[in-house]
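Observation: inputs received (chain + FE2/S2 (inorganic) cluster).
Thought: call the complex predictor directly.
Action: predict_structure
Action Input:
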Amino acid sequence: MIKFILNNQTIKTEKEEGSSLLDFIRTEMHLTATKIGCREGDCGACTVLEGRLVDGVLTYKSIVSCLTPLANAHAKHIVTVEGLNLDDLSPVQNAMSESSATQCGFCTPGFVVALTGHLLSSHNSAAVNSLSGNICRCTGYKSIEKAAGKVDELKQNLLFGSEIEQMIKEGWLPDYFSGIKNRLVEIEAIMTDMDGILISGGTDIMVQQADGLRHKKFVRAGDFITDNVTEENGNIKIGAGITINDFFRNRLIMEHLPQLSEFLPLIASEQIRNMGTLAGNIVNASPIGDISIMLLAFNSSLVLENKDSRQRQLALKDFFVSYKKTRLKPDEIIKHILISADMDMNFNFEKVSKRTYLDIASVNTSLGITVDNKLIKEVYFSAGGVAAVPKFMLQSSGFLKGKELSIPTLESVLPVIQSEISPISDIRGGSIYKRLLLRQLFLQHFLKLFPDEFEQKDLLNIMITNSLHDEKY
Ligand SMILES: Cc1cc2nc3c(=O)[nH]c(=O)nc-3n(C[C@H](O)[C@H](O)[C@H](O)COP(=O)(O)OP(=O)(O)OC[C@H]3O[C@@H](n4cnc5c(N)ncnc54)[C@H](O)[C@@H]3O)c2cc1C
Ligand code: FES
Ligand code: FES
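Observation:
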C-alpha cells in the first residue's frame, strides 16, 4: 500500500505503483489546478512540492508530477497549489498577481508552486533560477521575472532562512504545515516489497516507457541506497541515490570539486535536477548524459552491489559497453560513486545544444587535467554525442599525458581525437558537425583553463589548419 499526505489529507491507496502522481492528483482526487502539459518533464505545468524528512528535518523541493510514479510519493508530503491556498492570496500568488505575471493562467499554478518551493529551500540562488523548468506561452516572461524578484525580497526578510514555523507565523503557509512532520514520522518510510523494476527519480524511465510501466511493480532504489556524501579512505564516497541538485550543492562536493557548480544550470531544469539521480544518469547510459561525461573526467569509480550484498568496484570508464549496454549485472545496483579526495585538477565542461538551457546536448565534453611546470601530469578527457556510449577518450588522454602544455601538443592530438570517435548523424546534428564541435570544444577547454598559455587567435589558427575533410570520415 502507498501512504502519503496530499496537502492536508492522509492518503492510503492500492493504485498502481507505476501510474503517475499527476493522474492520481487530477483523476482520483479531482485537484485540477495541477495541469497536464507535455507529460515529459519539459513544461512545469504539473509542478508540485515534495516534502520529506531528511535527518529529521522536513525539507521541500519542486518536482514534476507527470514523471513521478505513485510509488515515489510514499511517505512524502505532496503539495499542490490548492494546498498552498490561504484566506487571501499567498505572498507568492500576490507577487505573480501584482507583477501581471499571469494571463490565461494555465501555467500559473506551476509557477506559484515552483516559487514557493524556492522560498522553502535553504539555498541562496535567485528565485528566477527555480523557474528553469516552467514554460509560459502568454506573458513573455518579463513579468514573471519581476514576480521572482519579489520572492527574492520575501526570502531576504525571513529571519532564520526557510523555517516552516516562521513562514506559517508570517501567514505565508497554511497552518496545517506545522503538523506534517509528526504525521510523516508515523508512516513507515521504506516500502518492503523488493520485487519489481528498480526506479530512482523516474525522470528517465517514466519518459522512455511511460504507459508501459503503469501495471508494473516498482522497487524504489532510494529505500536501500543512500544519498549521503562522505570522505572515506582518501575517496569522496557519494551515495548513488543523490539527486543532481543535492550533488552539486553538497558541502563536501563544493569543497573538493568547486569547479563543478558553474555547470549546474546547463543540466535539465530545477524540477528534473530535484528528482534525477546520479545512478539513474549513469545506468541510463545515454551517450550524451551530462553527469556521466563529468564523472568520467574525475576518473570516478562505481561500487556495485548484488542481492547477496557482495560488492565489486569498477572504473566508470569500463562500465559502458555499447549503446545502452553496461557491465551492470541483472541482480546488481549502483551503491556508491567514488572520486579521489586528493584530486587537485583543473576541470571544465562544455555542452552545445539547440537551446542553452533545458536541452540535451548535441556534443558535450569534460576535461580533468593536472599540469606541473608546463608538463601535463594527469589528463582525463571525455566526450558525449560522438560514440554509442558516454566516451572516455582513452587514446587522446594517453597521448596527452606527459606532453608539454603547448600549441604543438594540442595540434598533434587532434587527429587522435578524430580517430577515436564515431559520431552518427541524427536529429541533434550531422556526423561531420559533431566532429567539428568536439574539436572546437576540446580547444575551448584549454582556452578556458589556461588563459595565460593560450590565445584565442592561436587556437583559431589550429582550427583553420586542421580542417576536417568530409571524404576522410
Ligand atoms: C525534461 C528532461 C530534461 C533532461 N535533461 C537532461 C540533461 O540536460 N542532461 C542529462 O544528462 N540528462 C537529462 N535528462 C535525463 C535524466 O533526467 C537524467 O538522466 C537523470 O539523472 C536520470 O535519473 P533518474 O534517477 O530519474 O533515473 P530513473 O528514471 O529512476 O532510472 C533510470 C534507469 O536507471 C536504473 N537505476 C536507477 N537507479 C539505479 C541504481 N542505483 N542502480 C542501478 N540501476 C539504477 C533504473 O532501473 C532505470 O533503468 C533529462 C530528463 C528530462 C525528463
Ligand atoms: S506535464 Fe509538462 S512537465 Fe509535467
Ligand atoms: S499565462 Fe498562459 S501559459 Fe502562462
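Thought: report the result.
Final Answer: The radius of gyration is 23 Å. The domain at 2-185 is CATH 3.10.20.30 (Ubiquitin-like (UB roll)).
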